[in-house]
């Protein structure tokens, strides 16, 4: 199966973007198990902010061209089933240990989803299965685009790159500034 190639965007601190552009640092991995687990997060196609730079908050956007490699694509029914089994197993283990989870708390739900994805990666590793290079999921968020709509203004496809070798190139959107290309041949 051929790996999907995509362009994604990440909002980040302007100083970090300059350091990435100069080659001093790589984009950092997330510190926690947020939504899709540990990795480098990108929004597919849609830029978090179309402006070149937000002067007030010292934020900017970095674009990336990447291939997803061996992807846990949560739009795929088989991947959904694997993620569901891991989530259910994790909740069962925690429940047996006496934990009770609020079912209507979105923050708790995101933490549980991230923990389930990390659990899946640990299981793959312990069974010697091929590790996932990336995780992909639709995030439905924001306000209705019209009254009663199920379409939201902040809906996006989010990708978590776990394997840095999947990032082919980084760039600054709305600019001719090219950050870095990775030759992995």
Plain-language structure description:
The structure is a single chain. By secondary structure, this protein is of the alpha+beta class. The chain has one domain. The chain has helices spanning 14-21, 77-96, 106-126; strands at residues 5-13, 40-44, 53-54, 59-67, 71-73, 134-139, 156-161, 167-171, 178-181. Strands 1, 2, 3, 4, 5, 6, 7, 8 and 9 form a 9-stranded mixed β-sheet that branches. α2 (77-96) crosses α3 (106-126). Residues 49-54 have low confidence and may be disordered.
Give descriptors for this structure.
9 strands; nine-stranded mixed sheet; alpha+beta; globular; 185 residues
Uncertain segments are 49-54
Please count the beta strands (DSSP E, at least 2 residues each). Answer: 9
User: What fraction of residues sit in β-strands?
Assistant: 25-35%
> How many distinct folded domains?
1
Output mean pLDDT.
Answer: 82
**Structural classification:** alpha+beta
H and E string: EHEEEEHHEEEE
- Gyration radius (Cα, Å) is 18 Å
Query: Which overall shape is indicated by the principal axes computed on the Cα atoms?
Result: globular
Separation of the first and last Cα atoms: 20 Å
What percentage of residues falls in helices of 4 or more residues? 25-40%
User: What's the helix count?
Assistant: 3
Main sheet characteristics: 9 strands, mixed
Put the structure in a nutshell.
The chain is of the alpha+beta class. The chain has three helices and nine strands, in the order βαββββααββββ.
List the helices and strands and how they pair.
Elements (H helix, E strand, L loop, with lengths): L4 E9 H8 L18 E5 L8 E2 L4 E9 L3 E3 L3 H20 L9 H21 L7 E6 L16 E6 L5 E5 L6 E4 L4
Parallel strand pairs: 5-6
Antiparallel strand pairs: 1-2, 1-4, 2-7, 3-4, 4-8, 6-7, 8-9
Helix pairs in contact: 2-3
């Amino acid at each position: 199966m051929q790996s999907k190639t995509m362009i994604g965007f990440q909002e980040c601190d302007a100083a970090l973007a300059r350091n990435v552009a100069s080659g001093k640092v790589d984009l950092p991995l997330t510190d926690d198990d947020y939504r899709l687990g540990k990795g480098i997060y990108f929004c597919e196609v849609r830029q978090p902010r179309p402006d070149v730079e937000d002067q007030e908050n010292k934020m900017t956007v970095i674009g990336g061209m990447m291939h997803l490699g061996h992807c846990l694509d949560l739009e795929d029914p088989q991947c959904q089933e694997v993620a569901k089994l891991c989530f259910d197993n994790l909740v069962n283990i925690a429940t047996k240990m006496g934990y009770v989870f609020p079912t209507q708390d979105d923050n708790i739900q995101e933490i549980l989803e991230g923990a389930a994805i990390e659990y899946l990666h640990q299981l793959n590793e312990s069974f010697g299965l091929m590790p996932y290079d990336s995780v992909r999921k639709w995030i439905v968020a924001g306000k209705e685009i019209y009254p009663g709509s199920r379409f939201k203004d902040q809906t996006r496809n989010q990708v978590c790159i776990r394997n840095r070798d999947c990032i082919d190139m980084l760039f600054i959107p709305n600019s001719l500034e090219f950050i870095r290309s990775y030759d992995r041949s």
